[in-house]
Amino acid sequence: MDRELAVIGTIQSEIKDIASAPKMEDEPGAVRARIVMDPAYAEGLDGLEPGAALEIFTWFHKSDRSVLKVHPRGIKERPLRGVFATRSPARPNPIGLHRVTLVAIEAPLTLVVEPLEAIDGTPVIDIKPKPKGS
Predict the structure, then answer these.
(1) Is the confidence at residue 42, as pLDDT, over 70?
(2) What average pLDDT does this structure show over 121-133?
(3) Considering only CA atoms, which of 130, 129, 128 is closest in space to residue 8?
(4) Residues 35 and 102 sit within 8 Å (Cβ to Cβ)
(5) Which residues are CB-neighbours of 35 under 8 A, at least 6 positions away?
(6) 121 near 68, Cβ under 8 Å?
(7) Distances (CA, A) of 121 to 10, 19, 38
(8) pLDDT digit string (tens) for 68-123?
(9) Is the dihedral of CA 19, 63, 42, 47 positive or negative?
(10) What is the number of other CB atoms lying within 10 angstroms of the CB of residue 21?
């Protein structure tokens, strides 16, 4: 079984550290950001158009992969829960899911999206159209 991920692009964002990042894309602090694609994946962008609803999958490269229990939303007054019952970025496989709108495609290989809560430099591992009706 192949277990390797390909980094297809990188986030360019005004958000520079985990502490200043909002927890979700629909919260204050989410920004318009860019995804600079690796040229090897250029053909995979065919068919994308501004206005498209997308799901961006990222690798939370600064997350703690050893954590299995967290206080939901980082609020210490909340009881600890297993990471699989939360949206915490700290988890064994720190995959982020971001629901965004494609604002523009800048030449040669840059997607402008919003709203995004990922920090600058976050690796992008996949892009999918958002399912209709969700």
Answers:
(1) yes
(2) 92
(3) 128
(4) no
(5) 9, 10, 11, 12, 56, 110, 111, 113, 124, 127
(6) no
(7) 6, 15, 13
(8) 999 988 889 999 999 999 988 889 999 999 999 999 999 889 999 999 999 999 99
(9) negative
(10) 21
Share of the chain above pLDDT 90, in %: 73
Determine the average pLDDT of the residues in 13-32: 82
Structure confidence by residue, pLDDT tens digits, 94-107: 999 999 999 999 98
Angstrom distance (rounded) from CA 124 to CA 48: 16
Give, in order, the Cα–Cα distances in Å from 53 to each of 35, 36, 102. 15, 18, 6
Q: For residues 112 and 32, what is the distance between their CA atoms, to the nearest angstrom?
A: 7
Q: Which amino acid is at 86?
A: T
Asked if 35 contacts 28 with a C-beta cutoff of 8 angstroms, the reply is: no
DSSP 67: -
Q: Please state the length of the chain.
A: 134
Question: Long-range contacts made by residues 48-52, C-beta under 8 angstroms, separation at least 24?
Answer: 48/102, 48/105, 48/111, 48/127, 49/102, 49/105, 50/102, 50/103, 50/104, 50/105, 51/101, 51/102, 52/101, 52/102, 52/129
